[in-house]
Amino acid sequence: MIDAYIRTKNRLKMSRNLQLARHIYKKSQNNRSPAFCKCSQAVAELCECGEKDSRSLDWLWHIESDEVSNLLIYGQTVVFHPTFSQGTAAVKGSTSLDKNMIHHWEIKILSDMTGTDLMVGVGTDKVDLSSCKYKYTSLLGLCNQSWGYSYRGLAQHNGRLKYYGKRYSSLCIVGVYLDLRHRCIEFYLNRRPQGTAYRQIKLDDDAEVYPMVCSTSAKSIVRLINATSFAENLQYLCMKVISKDRNSIEFVKSAPGLRHLCNDYWFLLSKEQYQYSERDNGKALLEDEALLCCSDDQEHSNSTDESITDEMDIYNGVDYIKHRKRNRTSSCSSDDDNDVDMEFFCDHY
């Protein structure tokens, strides 16, 4: 009698777990971003859309002195696992980033997104890029010395995953805005800001910061299309304000003495070149995808049945849509491994 009761209880629990997984999986699929352009996947490597907005390439990819079998680098393009994949490959920029400047760079995804993860982000020289060469994992953000944005729409730092922005796929452009003066990181997707991912990032005085990309998928390809660094000055602050008004932008473009500012700070103006699908009455432009995703999920959670709500309460925040402040230690491993495992389970179901 007791055994039958336990079996029934386990079946009910499994059923609720599957229901929760389906709910989160459906929500994540609706959060996928379309491609930046309409080019065919068959000619993705030949696509040059969005690559002529800036001619600035302050750095390229770092090529190891010894031959690395899981990376193929030629120019601005990186091919991860050219033959087959047996773990996680990672690459960093050729030069470290100045801590007194603002940095912005863009990575174009040229292959289908499969496998455990592909991440774009930032890390210090203390990150061992070959530590997971024979392990499939989300490398960037695994410890407290790196920060990453996954193709599954998750952000990770210090071993903690959280839902952050849109999911991206082939022919999407992922941008990274890194302000090392104010210690904040923001990611862009198809030149739309996803909201500030991390604030007050902690860096050691002797640490050098590098742009990084990692992937577990065989024959996954990314290309660096823009990379610029600049100081925070009055021109930049003015252009941030001007970029919010279309009439002001047109005035700056028409003034001969100011026209060069549009070229110097092109990424502030490029958001007009791409628009996500409009919602409701068609008048709302998605200026911040992450915030709208949060509001949608709050509305959706109110309409779900009571059993799902209770199940989400049981797992105490499996859904990290709401960004919560956490006091984390400086260790590379997370004490709450169950939270991470549950997120992987729900996202990969």
Outline:
This protein is of the alpha+beta class. The protein contains 8 helices and 13 strands.
Average pLDDT confidence is 76
Q: What does the largest sheet look like?
A: 7 strands, antiparallel
Number of helices: 8
Low-confidence stretches: 272-349
Rg from Cα: 21 Å
Strand content: 15-25%
The percent of residues in helical segments reads: 25-40%
Overall form: globular
Order of helices and strands: HEEEEEEEEEEEEEHHHHHHH
What's the total count of β strands? 13
> What strand line-up does the widest sheet have?
1-2-13-4-9-10-11
Straight-line distance between termini:
33 Å
Structure class: alpha+beta
Structural notes for this entry:
This protein has 349 residues and is α+β, with helices and mostly antiparallel strands. 27% of the residues lie in helices and 23% in strands. The protein is built from 8 helices and 13 strands. The protein has a 7-stranded antiparallel sheet with strand order 1-2-13-4-9-10-11. The protein has a 6-stranded antiparallel sheet with strand order 3-12-5-6-7-8. Helix 1 packs across helix 7. The two termini are 33 Å apart.
